[in-house]
Amino acid sequence: VRNPHVPGGVLVSITGRPLRDAQGLPRGGVIVLRDVTARMRAEDELRRNRERFALAVEGSRDGLWDWDVTRAEVYFSPRWKAMLGHEDNEISNRFEEWSSRLHPDDRDR
After folding, report:
1. Are residues 55 and 78 part of one domain?
2. Which burial class, exposed, middle or buried, applies to 92 when counting CB atoms under 10 A from its CB (0-12, 13-18, 19+)?
3. Is residue 41 located within the same domain as residue 85?
4. Degrees (nearest 5) of the Cα angle 40, 45, 48?
5. How far is CA 71 from CA 8, 32, 53, 99, 103, in A?
6. Pair 4, 29 in one domain
7. Are residues 52 and 29 located together in one domain of the fold?
8. What HEC string does the chain produce?
9. Domain range spanning residue 78?
10. Are residues 2 and 50 in the same domain?
């Protein structure tokens, strides 16, 4: 929807459905318009940031691992796995893959 007072316009989600009488015949309708501009712009910004981050990680040739403690999820980049001498498919993204590689003296720290 174009609005000369809103630079770049407004992004709108449109949902509609008919209203039917007791016999199932359409007698009207309901249409809902939602302004999704902020959400769509945030999603676009997130996509661009992810692309930037991926390029930075790839260009740095650093191995990356990330542990999301609250969700109990771990990510190991293909480069991290290669630095350990493994192919990407040889190490799964599980915490045990990392903890099993700790030196015994470091386990209790």
Report:
1. no
2. exposed
3. no
4. 125
5. 37, 35, 21, 17, 25
6. yes
7. yes
8. CCCCCCCCCCCEEEEEEEEECCCCCEEEEEEEEEECHHHHHHHHHHHHHHHHHHHHHHHHCCCCEEEECCCCEEEECHHHHHHCCCCHHHCCCCHHHHHCCCCHHHCCC
9. 61-109
10. yes
Hey, what amino acid is at 72?
A
User: 2 falls in which pLDDT band (50, 70, 90)?
Assistant: low
pLDDT tens digits for 5-28? 777 778 889 999 999 999 999 999
Is the model's pLDDT at 3 over the cut of 70?
no
In the chain, the amino acid numbered 93 is N
Cα 3 to Cα 6, 9, 68, distances in angstroms: 5, 6, 42
Do 53 and 70 share a domain, yes or no?
no
Other CB atoms within 10 A of residue 94 CB? 13
Show the tokens assigned to 52. Answer: 């930037």
Q: Residue length, the chain? A: 109
Quick: pLDDT tens for 38-71.
999 999 999 999 999 989 888 888 999 999 999 8
